[in-house]
Structure formats: C-alpha cells, structure tokens
Amino acid sequence: MSDKLFGSNLRKNILIILVTITGIWFTSQLIKMQIIEYQSYSSKSDNNSVKKIVQQAPRGIFFDRNFQVLVSNKPSYTLQITPAIYDTAIGRILENVLSMERNTISDILYKNRGYSKFLPRVIKRDIAFEDLVWFEENNELLKGVNIVVEMQRDYSFDIKGSHVFGYLREINSQQLKENDEFYDLGDFIGIQGVERAYENYIRGKKGYEFVLVDSRRKTIGKYLAGTSDIPPQKGRDLILTLDAEAQKVAEKAFEGLSGSLVAIEPSTGEIISYVSAPEFDLEKFAAVTSRQLMNELRNDPEKPLFDRAANSIYPPGSTYKMLAALIGLEEGIINENSVITCKGGYQFGNRFFKCHGSHGTTNVVSAIEHSCNTFFYKLILDIGLDRWAKYLRMFGFGSPTGFDLSKDAAGIVPDSKYYDRVYGEKKWGRGMLISLGIGQGELSVTTLQLAQYAAYLANSGKIKAPHVVKGYIEGLQNNFHPFNYDNKEIKISKHNFDIVREGMFKVVNGNGTARHIRLPNIDISGKTGTSQNPHGKDHALFIGFAPFENPKIAVAVIVENVGFGGTHAAPIAQKVIKTYLENLEDDDFKVADL
To answer: What is the mean pLDDT of the segment spanning 259-276?
Structure first.
C-alpha cells in the first residue's frame, strides 16, 4: 500500500513540476513577445496592414538669367504593378482599358523578373483622366495594381533647348548598377544636357507615405495620422545663363536649317544662347520614351540627337584670319603698318593661290576688313607651322573647352608631328601651310570653340570657361549659390588685340563682307567665313561681338550646306545680338530704341 502511495505521490510531484515549468515557459514567452519584442512584432503587424507608397521628388526648375521659367514640372499619373500580389487574370482587362497591345504587361513583368517581386513595376505613365476614373471605381478588384502621382517635365515655355536641357529616361539595369542607392526600378534619370550634368542637384529626395489598408488592400486611412510620413524634398532649382528671348530668336532663325550657334558673355563665359539644329521635341520625352521614337531619331539622316555646337567639327575658314594676324603681330613678323600688294592671289612655287579680288596695297587691318587671302597666305609661311599651332592651342583649339554640360570635341590642330604621322616624315612641304592660313586644310574646330575664340577677341584675351549654369537656389529663403568657373587668359598685348579688333569693326561698319548687318545704334564687330565641304555646298560661318566698346556678347554661327557666311550666318548673329542687347538690363549699358 505504501509503495502504491509513493508511486502515486511521485507521479503527482513530477506532474506538478512539469506543469509549473510549462507555465513558466509560456509566461516568459508571452512577456518576451508582448514586452521585449513588441517593436519587432508590431512592425510585422504593420506590414500586414500598412502600405508604403514612394513619393517621387519634383525635379528642380530651370530659370533663365532673368528668372524666366524655361523648364518646370506638371503632375502625371502612373500605373504600377507589384508582382507578389498581382492577379495575372486581370492583365487583358487592364490592357484593354489602357489601349495597350496584348501581352504588354506580361512582357514588362517578364523583362524585370530579376528584381524583387515586392518591388513595383512601372507599366504605363501619363494615364488619361478617364482611365484614372475607371481604376478608382474598380480599385478593390485590382490586386497588386496601384496608381501613383508623379511629376513629369513641363516644356510649355516656348523654348526648345533640346541640346541644352537634355531629357529624362527610365533608368536601365546597367545604370542601376552604376549609380548610388537613390534609384529604384522605374525611376527617371537625366540622359543629356543639364538634366545629366546636374542630376545630383536637381533630382531631390524621395518621400514615403504610409496608409492603412484592409484585407482587400483598399486604403482606409492614414497610418498614425500621417505622423510617420516622410515628405519628398524637391530638387534644387537651377539658374541658367541663357537669355530666353535671345534663345527664341536663335531657334527660330535656324528653323529648316542645319548648324549651330553659341553666344557667350565675354567677361564671364556665360552662354547666352545655344542652338544645335535640327532639334528634337522634348515633349515626346516627358513621359515614357518609346523604342520606336528613339529608333526614328537615331536613324534620322539629319541626326537631331547629335549636338552640333559641341561635337561637330568644321574648317573655320576666314574666321581664323584674326588669329594669324595676332600671331604675326605678337611675334613681330608684322606690325600695323606692314603692307603687301595683293594682285589677285599668291604665287608659291609653280602654283598660284587665288584671292577674292585684287586688293592692292594692304595692311593687317584692311586684310581683315576685306578678307584678303593673299595677305594671310604669305603671313602663315612667315609664321611657320609649329609656332602657328602653339598659338592656336593657347586659344583653346585642339582641346575641349571645359564646357560644363559635356566633354566637347577637341578638333584638330595640325603641326609637324601630325603631318609626319599622317603623310610620313619629309613627305610634306611648306605649301601645305597655304590652306591653313585661310582656315582650310586639316584644321577643324567646333562652334563652341569659335564662340570662345570670339570672346577672347572681344575681351582682349581674358575669359572664363564657357558654361550654361550660373548656380542653384536652395532653402526657404531661396538662397543663391553660384558655381565657380576657371579663369582663362592669353598673354598677348592689348595693343595687338586692338589692331585686330579694328579690322573686325570695319568688316561690319566699313566696306567689309558683313556690312549688310550694320545697325545704327549697336556697333557690331565680326568676321565672315566660308568653309569648304567635300560633301556638298559650303558651310557659312560668322563670329563677332558687340558693342565694340565694353562687349556684352560674343557669338559664333555655322550654317551647314548653304554657301557664303556673309549671306547666311551673319544675319542670324545680328538678330541674336540685337535681341539680347535691346533687352539687356545693365546699368553700364543701355541700347537706345532702334
């Protein structure tokens, strides 16, 4: 009897111990879950009932130098699908509503299958209002489908500016790997122009909105009354150096033409107008850019995507004669009183190189005024190839300008090493310099380089690197932060610059090749040029500046395949100069009503 009792008590005690231990364990787990790990489980619970919506930041606005809006933003609605909760059965319905081709949605999802299924995929941007209404009415049935508000670029300010502003495209997989953690699938990124060069300034910071949803993913309210939301931060606004009115005039002047124009404020390097023609329509890049559109632009024989101002290279023609004159003056080869007799050309060996006419006794000023080839044929032979090339490089030819939007083309400045490499040592002679003396031959330059050269001439050898962005605006007080650009200076005497500038003045205001662009109240100085083109009609060129005293604008124009510079390029430059100076608000300079 005692054994049975012992056995019964033992089992009883063991059972009590087990129950007590089990109770303690369950109690400890409840304490751990409800107190110690509350935040973790709370977050998991929130994930089941709280939806995080990414709020894209509006990109910074572009203003011109007078604070006129050039590029802004406007709201747009975008359809996104989250694959993890998307019901593929509704795909065809969505495609019908959005007028999309069959299997478009499945193709997009398949293309981006390598990313997390919980990461939303952009299906279509710029949803029409009537389609938006349908999505709102049927929201409960559209699992994994979401409409978000985004900001797209607004180009409705009567400025094309395609090669200045650049455009946006959805970031691709390679760009996602190369860039920082800011970007996600479906984000936009700057591709060309200001949009690309200043991407980090104008992209802003994303925000996040947290909303409560029910079991059917229908939004039922703000999570924590919106206190946990993170508002997006708009990108910094940029002040560009462009003058809106001068830019409009330049763009209109190039309608139907191919070529480029760059106008610079000589003392600052600020680009007043920048045109590469033909341009492309930025409105077509505001939403998603189709592959068809890109293929059409890439295959267009006129090459509208190509920036001619910074990257096309041409012989500069007679616009280069002032540079040869400066070299001759600075090296003491000629002075302002040196003369030659032009009898219609120059005899070199057994070949006669023609001039535009018989100019008679000609000094350096009249040689520039009348574009006397004979004077410059002889001058470059006296200068010599390598000394000539050294000065060209001092003026920035043969290397990029330091342009802030992109690395522009260097062009070609031939010297003896270049000719040895191309033709072989001792297989070329001094006769090859003849063409270089009038800006032909292997010499090649960009419009941007010519505009910089014109600024050097206007400001007697002192400029800053050419640039399109002055600085950015930041903070509630709209504080302006200017960017700094390198000073450039050429050590040539002001007296010699003045001699050359006098010749340029007479080109327009004397009996020169651009006298037809003379204005009564603005003293324009310049030089025309005609560049040989082996593929068709010659290119027309003009460089110049105004006013003659205290220049405010220097300009270079190249019009392709049209003929003489005085006929086609000079009038475009005149229109831009006149427009800019008439509207210039400057205490030091006021142009009278013309």
So the answer is: 97
Gap between the terminal Cα atoms of the chain: 132
**What are the domain boundaries of the chain?**
51-240, 244-294+306-582
Cis peptide before 547 (omega within 30 of 0): yes
Write the CB contacts of 243 (distance below 8 Å, at least 6 apart in sequence): 64, 65, 66, 272, 273, 580, 583
How much is the pLDDT for 98? 86
Average pLDDT, the chain: 87
Q: Which helix (H) or strand (E) holds 257?
A: none
- The dotted CATH code for 51-240 is 3.90.1310.10
Q: Which fold has domain 244-294+306-582?
A: Beta-lactamase (3.40.710)
Q: Which two tokens stand for residue 401?
A: 């300008």
> Taking the model in full, what pTM does it have?
0.82
Cα angle 262, 264, 266 (rounded to 5 degrees) comes to: 150
Token duo for residue 362: 């000609």
Give the model's confidence band at 593: pLDDT under 50 very low, under 70 low, under 90 confident, else very high.
very low
51-240 against 244-294+306-582: fold identical: no
Partner residues linked to 230 by β-bridges: 208
Q: Which residue has the tokens 């299997």?
A: 103
**Is the bond into 482 cis (omega within 30 degrees of 0)?**
no
Average pLDDT over residues 11-26: 75
Of 146, 268, 304, the closest CA to residue 213 belongs to 146
Q: Kindly give the interhelix angle for 494-509 and 447-458, rounded to the nearest 10 degrees.
A: 110
Q: Which of 438, 383, 431, 392 is nearest to 413 (CA)?
A: 392
Q: Which of 538, 457, 451 is nearest to 494 (CA)?
A: 457
Task: Count CB atoms within 10 A of the CB of residue 535.
Answer: 6
Out of 9-13, 162-166, 281-285, 479-483, least confident range: 9-13
Q: For 367-396, what is each residue's pLDDT tens digit?
A: 999 999 999 999 999 999 999 999 999 999
